[in-house]
Task: inverse folding
């Protein structure tokens, strides 16, 4: 399978020019990044031009401009997930091991001109056909920047106005070529997306030394934010002429459009006091008015207080501090309340005009159908009396350095309380809806973070042996404290089609849940179907927490003379992980553990007609059916694994170039290094896939669910850095 | 810098603060969705829901049901697991019936009920269709949410017994039939995909549907005979133009999904659905002229050679396939046909629910079989010959003869054929006779679909333990 992939490469080149006078300065830079992916045919290019310039017109008035243009183009991006004919990983992981990559490479197309097949039923595509012909191409043009005008009205009072914008336009085209199995007539999907954000801030700043020891900085400001989004989409099916991707060449075109706009006004203030540069207190307050919330609840105020105390500066004369035993100590305590709004257009019960009525195999019917147009009511029950969502957080921390900075300990304890969070809770579909949107309740997080840095060995000679160690440890506890009235559970659907949810009840954290296998209540063993020796599907079951108990890492750097060796090991302990790839590999008999085809009797009990049980004595009907019975579509129980792992995340070997070499190039110093990332999975309990793979990112439902993701890559890099 | 005076700064700051403090977005107009509407017409909700349900019936619910109930053989190709009762292919139907079909029907009904003047005919159309959908849903899954379902007012609807659901559909039909009047507004063409607003046809369909539901209930609840009796003579489906069906078209975006499947996956060459020996045993010995209409010879068969398979047997080049003519693009999706009505009437008469005795039943039976063949395009002389050869119905043979013809009449309508099979006799005595397929996930023949995992895990009211596929539902006696 690995033969299918190629070695990816990334090439970055950049150039910058900068200059200035006493009154002005500028920096203009350009960067080009070219990347070839590990899937054949996948490429990405990015061009960046950035300008940052300032001009002081008078002693009191100055202006700055920042402008960035980024163009990103990508071709042949591989699909992940499910439900299309063109996911290379799904095709590869269902590939019989008797088919060689060479065979696939040489048989991309059949004699009749359609995609070569990789299975007996002729329904799956040769993955080379997919990467040659089908994929997502896109181009994004993004322009962002801002103008900042600053006027020092008085020696202690400044007024500034800042206007910024971010414009992004994207064209996407996803092609499925005519002749692709499962879509023999071909189709393509064209999307034009436009996003625009405008932000203005008018800020007054007062800065005064109130007494010899006490300084104050006060800011009052006003913010306006506007975000608009537009999408035009045409989905074209049934191509007359092969490889002609025009809408006129398609038998059916379904056009849809979408636009949204949101606005927000904010007014804010910030008072900061500093006593002798070692005691700091900041008090802030902000009120926002959002267009997306109900009119009677669209204003929300949120304050914060933060403080810092550099103990080692305040008591500089104390012997513990002045002799270097404690070289630095800072304490901090912060409290903040943050409010936020909702997505636009979530409040009303709405009806969507239908462009087509869909079928799970995309044999869709177009509207108007025989002249009839159609509407459908929303599948999300809209919220009533929605309130802004809130987060309350408290944090205490310390940064301390000992023995002239040879040992450092940073520690943080935090507690956040998210309340009135606006979420769509999954409801049973028999209610007529798939979700209900509401202020869900309160979820709290408590955690600690530790970072210890140490230098066990440090020679006084700068070229001598030195060993740096860094340790970090993070632990977080997430609990649903309470839920909105009438709600017994916080359930988020995974949308994966196998009924897997992430759910929490008051007093618990988020668990993966799904249908489990039935068990005997007395022995706890699986109930076995006497007809075939297989496990029986049971009811709902919680499979475990999606979050880790803790994560940590160790970095070691040893340097001697010009050479430095560094490596980072990451560890995760606890939490569970659902692997769809493993389920597929096993149910299709491709995983190594399925190689033994001898029938056997699995552990479990059989329920007798009189209600008593006996140990299972029925052989599995076939090994194929045994693994099929353990597939996610029956129950995810067998494909959920402990997500703990240890990884050698990074290693690098660097060499500081002799000055006489770099001076010939006109440089002041230079370092050459060889770096590797994601080098070694030291320990993992998840078979076949990377335990960190997930299909939907780091959101609540993405955590812990993997499906046909691309293999994670091991990266090696050579780096030469010259400083002029 | 004179351009910006301190007065200007002062005014700007004060102005901006004032703007902020007077409350913004008070009219909510910025948050009005430009993509969706806050109102919809009952007619447009009806066409959306009806087309969705038709698609489910003819597509997603056809393949797994036709294979697992042995109407088609899998040839061990696409549908082997489905033939062994793996229902993971019935992925969206459960949710879709409630969220895309029933909810929109219920909202449309409510919207119509609140209108002045009250569009009684629209309400009747919606209620009749709702009853049709619920009856189909309970035949598939047994006990289902009904009284609390699809309204948005109950998040976790209770499951009602199949008996309650079926009685509920009868009540809906009674209410709808009583509401039909000559003058009130109705859902007309083009949104009424079935009858273009012809209320006389809706009335006939409603009566036929009520009759059909009662006939499925009467074995489990003999008291229903008292309701079947008075239905004799009521206006029911009496012509092909009365049939309940959605017409698909040979036109991109309008094609019957059964055609699209073969077109998109196989380039139009049927190589997935094979002739099941269960049906063959009812056709071949009787020289039934429908055989070459139901099936086409395999690509390697000799001329006129028809070969059937058991449900999971691997295909051969000679094995007969379901005829592409019954998978064509413009094939209508039929929910209630004329021949089905005629054969049901024959059964009601033969069983004594209706008057007329066996001779009247026999005549009705022959009319039904004739229609069943004629609609498929069997030549009249062949029909005549076949009907002449049919035995006269007697007290001892009428169940068997009717069962056979009723089942064959529903070929390519697997949902109705499965109901017919389950009600055709007591467990083990159904008609036609079938064997549990090799490798089946349960030890008996399939009698229901499994509830979806989504419902099991999100609705604590789902029956627990979940009844397996071989457990009979209430009507299946």
Result:
């Amino acid at each position: 399978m690995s033969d299918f992939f190629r070695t990816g490469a990334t090439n970055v080149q950049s150039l910058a020019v900068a200059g200035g006078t006493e009154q002005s300065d500028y920096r203009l830079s350009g960067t080009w990044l070219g990347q070839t992916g590990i899937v054949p045919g996948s490429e990405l290019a990015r061009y960046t031009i950035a300008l940052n310039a300032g001009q002081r017109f008078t002693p009191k008035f100055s202006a700055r401009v920042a402008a960035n243009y980024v163009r990103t183009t990508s071709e042949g991006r591989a699909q992940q997930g499910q439900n299309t004919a063109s996911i290379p990983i799904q095709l590869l992981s269902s590939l019989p091991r008797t088919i060689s990559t060479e065979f696939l490479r040489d048989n991309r197309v059949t004699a009749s001109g359609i995609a070569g097949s990789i299975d007996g039923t002729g329904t799956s595509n040769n993955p080379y056909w997919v990467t040659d012909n089908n994929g997502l191409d896109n181009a994004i043009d993004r322009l962002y920047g801002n103008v900042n005008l600053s006027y020092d009205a008085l020696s202690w009072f400044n007024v500034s106005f800042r206007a910024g914008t971010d414009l992004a336009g994207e064209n996407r085209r996803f092609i499925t070529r005519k002749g692709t199995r499962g879509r023999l007539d071909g189709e393509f999907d064209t999307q034009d997306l436009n996003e625009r954000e405008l932000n203005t801030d008018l800020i007054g700043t007062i800065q005064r030394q109130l007494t010899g020891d006490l300084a104050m900085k006060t800011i009052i400001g006003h913010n306006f934010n506007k975000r608009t989004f537009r999408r035009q989409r045409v989905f074209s099916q049934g191509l007359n002429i092969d490889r002609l991707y025009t809408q006129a060449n398609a038998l059916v075109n379904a056009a849809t459009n979408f636009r949204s706009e949101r606005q927000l006004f904010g007014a804010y203030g910030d008072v900061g006091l500093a006593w002798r540069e070692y005691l700091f207190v900041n008090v802030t307050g902000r009120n926002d008015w959002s267009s997306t919330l109900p009119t009677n609840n669209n204003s929300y105020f949120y304050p914060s207080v933060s403080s810092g105390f550099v103990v080692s500066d305040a008591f500089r004369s104390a012997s513990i501090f002045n002799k270097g035993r404690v070289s630095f100590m800072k304490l901090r305590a912060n409290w903040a309340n943050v409010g936020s709004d909702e997505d636009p257009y979530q409040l009303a019960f709405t009806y969507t005009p239908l462009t087509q009525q869909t079928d799970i195999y995309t044999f869709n019917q177009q509207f108007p159908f025989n002249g009839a147009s159609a509407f459908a009511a929303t599948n999300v029950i809209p919220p009533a009396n929605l309130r802004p969502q809130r987060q309350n957080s408290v944090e205490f921390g310390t940064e301390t350095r000992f023995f002239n900075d040879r040992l450092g300990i940073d520690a943080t304890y935090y507690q956040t309380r998210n309340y009135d969070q606006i979420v769509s809770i999954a409801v049973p579909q028999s209610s007529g809806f798939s979700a209900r949107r509401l202020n869900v309740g309160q979820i709290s997080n408590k955690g600690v973070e530790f970072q210890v840095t140490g230098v066990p060995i440090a020679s006084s000679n700068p070229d001598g042996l030195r060993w740096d160690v860094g340790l970090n440890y993070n632990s977080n506890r997430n609990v649903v404290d309470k839920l909105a009235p009438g709600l017994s559970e916080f359930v988020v659907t995974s949308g994966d089609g196998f009924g897997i949810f992430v759910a929490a009840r008051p007093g618990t954290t988020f668990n993966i849940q799904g249908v489990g296998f039935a068990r005997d209540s007395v022995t706890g063993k699986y109930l076995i179907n006497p007809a075939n020796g297989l496990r029986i599907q049971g009811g709902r079951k919680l499979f475990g927490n999606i979050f880790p108990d803790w994560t940590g890492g160790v970095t070691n750097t040893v340097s001697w003379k010009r050479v430095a060796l560094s490596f980072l090991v990451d560890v995760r302990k606890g939490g569970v992980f659902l692997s769809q790839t493993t389920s597929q590999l096993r149910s299709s008999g491709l995983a190594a553990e399925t190689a033994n085809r001898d029938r056997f009797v699995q552990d479990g009990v059989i329920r007798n007609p009189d209600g008593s049980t006996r140990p299972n004595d029925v052989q599995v009907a076939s090994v194929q059916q045994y693994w099929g019975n353990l597939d996610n579509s029956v129950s995810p129980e067998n494909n959920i694994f402990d997500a703990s792992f240890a990884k050698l995340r990074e290693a690098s070997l660097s060499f500081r170039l002799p000055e006489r070499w770099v001076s010939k190039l006109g440089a002041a110093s230079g370092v050459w290094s060889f770096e590797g990332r994601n080098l070694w999975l030291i320990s993992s309990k998840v078979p076949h896939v990377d335990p960190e793979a997930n299909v939907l990112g780091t959101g609540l439902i993405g955590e812990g669910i993997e499906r046909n993701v691309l293999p994670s890559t091991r990266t090696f890099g050579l780096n030469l850095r010259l400083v002029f | 810098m004179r351009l910006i005076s301190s007065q200007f700064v002062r005014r700007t700051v004060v102005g901006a603060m004032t703007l902020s403090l007077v409350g913004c977005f008070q009219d909510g107009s910025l948050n009005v969705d430009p993509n969706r509407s806050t109102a919809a017409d009952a007619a447009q909700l009806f066409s959306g829901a009806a087309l969705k349900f038709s698609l489910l019936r003819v597509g997603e619910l056809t393949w797994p049901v036709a294979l697992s109930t042995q109407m088609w053989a899998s040839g061990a190709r696409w549908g082997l697991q489905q033939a062994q009762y793996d229902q993971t292919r019935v992925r969206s139907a459960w949710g879709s019936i409630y969220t895309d079909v029933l909810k929109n029907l219920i909202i449309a009904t409510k919207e119509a009920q609140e209108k002045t003047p009250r569009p009684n005919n629209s309400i009747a159309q919606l209620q009749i269709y709702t009853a049709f959908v619920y009856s189909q849903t309970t035949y598939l899954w047994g006990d289902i949410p009904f009284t609390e379902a699809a309204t948005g007012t109950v998040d976790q609807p209770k499951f009602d017994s199949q008996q309650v659901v079926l009685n509920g559909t009868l009540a809906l039909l009674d209410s709808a039939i009583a509401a039909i009047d000559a003058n009130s507004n109705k859902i007309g063409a083009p949104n009424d995909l079935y009858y273009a607003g012809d209320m006389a046809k809706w009335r006939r369909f409603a009566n036929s549907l009520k009759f059909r539901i009662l006939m499925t209930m009467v074995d489990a609840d003999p008291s229903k005979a008292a309701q079947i009796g008075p239905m004799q003579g009521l206006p029911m489906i009496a012509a092909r133009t009365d049939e309940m069906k959605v017409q698909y078209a040979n036109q991109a975006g309008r094609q019957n999904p059964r055609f699209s499947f073969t077109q998109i996956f196989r380039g139009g060459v049927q190589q997935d659905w094979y002739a099941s020996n269960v049906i063959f045993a009812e056709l071949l010995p009787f020289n039934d002229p429908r055989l070459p209409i139901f099936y086409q010879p395999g690509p390697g068969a000799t001329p006129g050679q028809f070969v059937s398979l058991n449900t999971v047997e691997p295909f051969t080049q000679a094995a007969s396939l379901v005829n592409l003519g019954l998978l064509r693009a413009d094939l209508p999706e039929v929910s209630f046909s004329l021949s089905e009505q005629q054969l049901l009437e024959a059964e009601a008469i033969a069983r004594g629910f209706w008057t007329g005795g066996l001779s009247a039943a026999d005549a009705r039976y022959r009319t039904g079989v004739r229609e069943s063949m004629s609609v498929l395009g069997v030549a009249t002389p062949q029909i005549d010959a076949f009907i002449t050869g049919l035995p006269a119905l007697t007290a001892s043979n009428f169940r068997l003869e009717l069962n056979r013809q009723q089942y064959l009449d529903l070929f390519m309508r697997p949902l109705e054929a499965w109901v017919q099979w389950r009600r055709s006799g007591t467990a083990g005595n159904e008609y036609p006779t079938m064997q549990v397929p090799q490798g089946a996930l349960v030890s008996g023949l399939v009698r229901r679909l499994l509830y979806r995992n989504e419902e099991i895990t999100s609705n604590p009211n789902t029956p627990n333990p979940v009844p397996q596929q071989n457990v009979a539902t209430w009507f299946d006696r």
About this structure: Chain A has a mean pLDDT of 91.
